[in-house]
Amino acid sequence: xxxxxxxxxxxxMQQSMNxxxxxxxxxxxxxxxxxxxxxxxxxxxxxxxxxxxxQELDLSQLQMELVDIWHFVLSEILLRNDDGxxxxxxxxxxxxxxxxxxxxELKFDGSTYRLxxxxxxxxxxxxxxxxxxxxxxxxLFASIMTDxxxxxxxxxxxxxxxNVLNFFRQNNxxxxxxxxxxxxxxxxxxxxxxxxxxxxxxxxxxKHAVYASLQDAYxxxxx
Length: 223
Fold this sequence. Notes:
Strand content: 5-15%
Distance between the termini: 43 Å
Radius of gyration: 18 Å
Number of helices: 10
């Protein structure tokens, strides 16, 4: 399970990212759970759902979509616990994570959903529906993580990597439209997956090493 220190690190990094995008993000009240809906649909695409054509599950990209979803879940938790500062947001997330082991079913729209009975696609669809209804269900997210072979340790690792990529995007024209998301025919997300698994996440400069590696890969893609 994830540690309190890791929770603190992610919440701080998310606040920094949100402030990078908009210093007034708390006052803006952006619809972060709407973003979860869209990312959930992209996760379904990476899983494959079309019964009329051959498709293959892209597990690494599916995991990355979950990491994207986690960014927006953290943002919503921070927003909802704004009055209590960092401590209240941390406690809210800790409580939600501790409740995972005792949450076996969810009620939504007049129906009861047993997590053990749902397929991965069904769970992602349920996450989309709950997010559209402005509900945060960390237990459901954790169940999806398990189905996608994504541990909390791996989520933390990939979250840090993607957060760094988001900063890199912002620093290289993402907001004004000059950023190139395709690097030599590959999406930057795909390049990031390679980078974070080549580096040592236990090193104190891991975050900076990811940024430097992204910078090198971005420059090489221009050549």
